[in-house]
């Protein structure tokens, strides 16, 4: 996996991509300084700086301070915490699917209204990166993690103890908004911690985390809601969030190089009294407000003027919409057709989870293909080569959904539709890997904005699809409804093949894509 492809599930701001180690590999400090600067020396603060008056006194990190040189155990512990924290945020979205009956009884609302507990949380996840994405450029990743999880934890109390439906729904939205800040920068820490030759497996593990979360949610939520009240779903999440918050605050270090350099420069200025020492972020050309404004409009500009980005975003949005629609569809298929109880229905999502985890085993195969493509193009393969993994996903998803559709009859054993969902889990990961890496590489200068637009669109689909699931299944039946979704995914399936062939030609006429 190339360094351009690593932030697969995060939506950093454009400044992050330009300055992070993912795009600028860290080298010894002396090699980074301009040739016209003074001799570089060490100081008691550990930085290498110019020491002659009037000369450039830009501060760099020593090799020993490079986050990639942290002890291996510390790096893998940080990765584990980041992955589980990402799972926790997205798990929060789907766990609400099994609280709907309890919400109806407690608040006297309809089933359609109760579904808003899922939809509003996902809406918060989609809107959040537009406003919160630039925060790591100014405050670092660690502080964003801590603030995000603190507010997620506090606001979930409002969800768990809500006295009525409006309060519950308002807190669901703003808690999703808070959790989105973590997801918007988390992938960057993985590329900060691991060098080029060792980042593939860690990034593959992190990339799966936001997809596994929605699968894990029903597994425990089904058991809780069958045996106790819906509020215990959120009590359990509060406990998990508290543990993640403590781990993030105490065990995950700051890894964002520009912020580390800025803090070091401030320390040197304080110790020496010399105000000439500086880091690039000290000369930042825009304010937080300006960064937020750009983060809000640039993604929609790309969606409006880039047909390739728009179509790929719609494709990925459709698949996430289908994934979240299953939280309404599986209870219909397995409870109404096969007579499952709630906790057994929650276990039916294991099929998709197995498919997702299984994609890790394919990493060496696709890396080998990418290396051969890189050799063919003298180390500079076109962005379209990133779509090859999407070929597999484009084929697996429709096959899986058609298989699922025609095995939802009561006379078919219940294990068959669960097995049919396995390729869907794998396919969705392959599609997202292709779309994310293509957007990052093809829209290199605007990669963060392209990813933020993708996040907004797919979250919009994921928020809306569960709302029409029940009417669609009531009218079309399980076979017709799932077959309709399979047909939609079939219509979108040619996209990676078409863009693989014609993408380079289309990019020549693009306002934002690299040619």
From TrEMBL:
Which PROSITE patterns does this one have?
Answer: MFS (PS50850)
Instruction: Please give, as recorded in its UniProt entry, the membrane topology of this protein.
Output: Multi-pass membrane protein
Which Pfam families does the entry mention? MFS_1
Keywords carried by this UniProt record:
Membrane, Transmembrane, Transmembrane helix
User: Which superkingdom is the protein from?
Assistant: Eukaryota
Q: Which residues cross the membrane?
A: 76-98, 113-132, 144-163, 199-220, 310-334, 346-366, 387-406, 418-443, 455-473, 479-500
Q: Where is the Major facilitator superfamily (MFS) profile domain?
A: 78-515
Q: Where is this region: Disordered?
A: 1-40
Task: Name any GO cellular component annotation.
Answer: plasma membrane
Bias-annotated ranges (Polar residues): 21-40
Instruction: Show the coiled coil region(s).
Output: none
Where does it live in the cell?
A: Membrane
The molecular function terms of the Gene Ontology recorded here are: transmembrane transporter activity
Keyword Membrane among UniProt keywords: yes
Q: Could you tell me what this protein is called? A: MFS general substrate transporter
Organism of origin: Sistotremastrum suecicum HHB10207 ss-3
């Amino acid at each position: 996996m190339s360094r351009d492809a690593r932030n697969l599930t995060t939506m950093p701001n454009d400044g992050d991509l330009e300055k992070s180690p993912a795009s600028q590999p860290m080298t010894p400090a002396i090699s980074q300084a301009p040739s016209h600067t003074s001799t570089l020396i060490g100081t008691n603060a550990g930085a290498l700086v110019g020491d002659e008056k009037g000369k450039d006194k830009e501060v760099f990190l020593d090799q020993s301070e490079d986050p990639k040189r942290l002890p291996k155990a510390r790096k893998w512990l940080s990765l584990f915490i980041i992955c589980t924290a990402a799972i926790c945020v997205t798990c929060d979205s789907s766990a609400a699917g099994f609280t709907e009956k309890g919400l109806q009884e407690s608040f006297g609302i309809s089933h359609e209204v109760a579904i808003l507990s899922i939809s509003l949380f996902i809406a918060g996840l989609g809107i959040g990166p537009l406003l919160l994405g630039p925060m790591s450029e100014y405050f670092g990743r660690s502080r964003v993690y801590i603030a995000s999880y603190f507010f997620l934890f506090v606001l979930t109390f409002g969800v768990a103890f809500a006295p009525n439906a409006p309060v519950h729904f308002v807190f669901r939205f703003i808690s999703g908004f808070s959790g989105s800040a973590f997801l918007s920068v988390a992938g960057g820490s993985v590329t900060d911690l691991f060098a080029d030759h060792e980042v593939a497996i860690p990034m593959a593990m992190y990339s799966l985390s936001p997809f596994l979360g929605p699968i894990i949610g029903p597994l425990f939520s089904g058991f809780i809601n069958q045996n106790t009240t819906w509020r215990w779903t959120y009590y359990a999440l509060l406990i998990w969030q508290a543990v993640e918050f403590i781990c993030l605050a105490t065990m995950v270090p700051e890894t964002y190089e520009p912020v580390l350099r800025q803090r070091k420069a401030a320390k040197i200025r304080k110790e020496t009294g010399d105000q000439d020492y500086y880091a690039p972020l000290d000369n930042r050309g825009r304010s937080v407000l300006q960064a937020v404004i750009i983060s809000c409009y640039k993604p929609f500009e790309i969606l409006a003027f880039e047909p390739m980005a728009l179509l790929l975003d719609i494709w990925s949005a459709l698949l996430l919409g289908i994934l979240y629609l299953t939280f309404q569809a599986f209870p219909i298929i397995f409870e109404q057709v096969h007579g499952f109880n709630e906790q057994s229905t929650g276990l039916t999502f294991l099929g998709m989870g197995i498919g997702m985890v299984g994609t890790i085993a394919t990493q060496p195969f696709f890396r080998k293909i990418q290396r051969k493509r890189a050799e063919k193009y003298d180390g500079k393969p076109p962005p379209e080569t990133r779509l090859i993994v999407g070929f597999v996903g484009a084929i697996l998803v429709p096959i899986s959904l058609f298989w699922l559709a025609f095995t939802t009859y009561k006379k078919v054993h219940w294990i068959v539709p669960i097995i049919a969902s396995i390729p869907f889990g794998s396919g969705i990961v392959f599609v997202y890997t292709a779309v994310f890496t293509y957007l990052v590489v093809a829209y290199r200068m605007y990669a963060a904005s392209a990813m933020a637009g993708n996040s907004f669109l797919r979250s919009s689909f994921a928020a809306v699809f569960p709302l029409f699931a029940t009417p669609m299944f009531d009218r079309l039946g399980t076979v017709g409804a799932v077959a309709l979704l399979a047909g939609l995914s079939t219509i979108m399936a040619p996209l990676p093949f078409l863009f693989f062939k014609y993408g380079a030609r289309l990019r020549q006429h693009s306002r934002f894509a690299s040619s």
